[in-house]
Amino acid sequence: MKKFSTWPGVTALAAALVVGGSTAAVALGPTADQRVDGVIVVAGNTCTWSNARTSASPPSALTVDRTSINAPGGNLACSGGITATLNNDPAFTFDDAGGTAKTDAIDISGKQSFISCRFKAVNIVWNRDGSTRKYVNQAFTATKVSGSFLCPGSVTTAAGEASMLFH
């Protein structure tokens, strides 16, 4: 069984899960298929997914469809015995001139062993990676919404621990 001390990293993972990204680059301009790939590594655990559906292509405002990330419709997979579920369809807005994106809210449930926690982060800011459609997070804090008394009251995801790649 994993040490419980890794759980705060897992909850940070859950808070940021929807907005991970792969290392491939996509040039600015119209994107083709209105999809987003994700990856995040926290406390030695990795969660990934690919081809989650979006309602539009950046720089247009868009939402990410949680059913295309969560199983059974999506391919979200985590290492380290973690399971996570996105509870909302996050909305993104883009400032191409400033090279940033912003997410309204991410509401995530995470489970490790018998411990379940639900966290919500709001107004997350992302920095664009050069001239690509890859965005890397600025530090943010997710607040506990519900779950075990063993769950921390909040978790912080450091800058660069999450990214997203729109394609």
The residue ranges in which pLDDT falls below 50 over 5 or more consecutive positions are 1-27
What percent strand?
Answer: over 45%
Shape: globular
Per DSSP E runs of 2 or more residues, the count of β-strands stands at: 12
**Largest beta-sheet characterization:** 12 strands, antiparallel
Q: How helical, in percent, are the residues?
A: under 10%
H/E element string?
HEEEEEEEEEEEE
Distance between termini?
Answer: 38 Å
Structural class: mainly beta
Look at the structure and give the mean pLDDT.
82
Oligomer: single chain
Q: How do the strands and helices of this protein lay out in sequence?
A:
Elements (H helix, E strand, L loop, with lengths): L6 H10 L18 E8 L2 E9 L8 E2 L13 E2 L3 E5 L4 E5 L4 E13 L2 E14 L5 E4 L2 E8 L6 E4 L4 E5 L1
Antiparallel strand pairs: 1-2, 1-12, 2-4, 3-6, 5-7, 6-7, 7-8, 8-9, 8-10, 9-12, 10-11
What does this structure look like?
The protein contains one helix and twelve strands. It is mainly β. Helices cover 6% and strands 47% of the residues. Strands 1, 2, 3, 4, 5, 6, 7, 8, 9, 10, 11 and 12 form a twelve-stranded antiparallel sheet that branches.
Quick structural overview:
This protein is mainly beta. The protein is built from one helix and twelve strands; from the N terminus they run αββββββββββββ. The chain is globular.
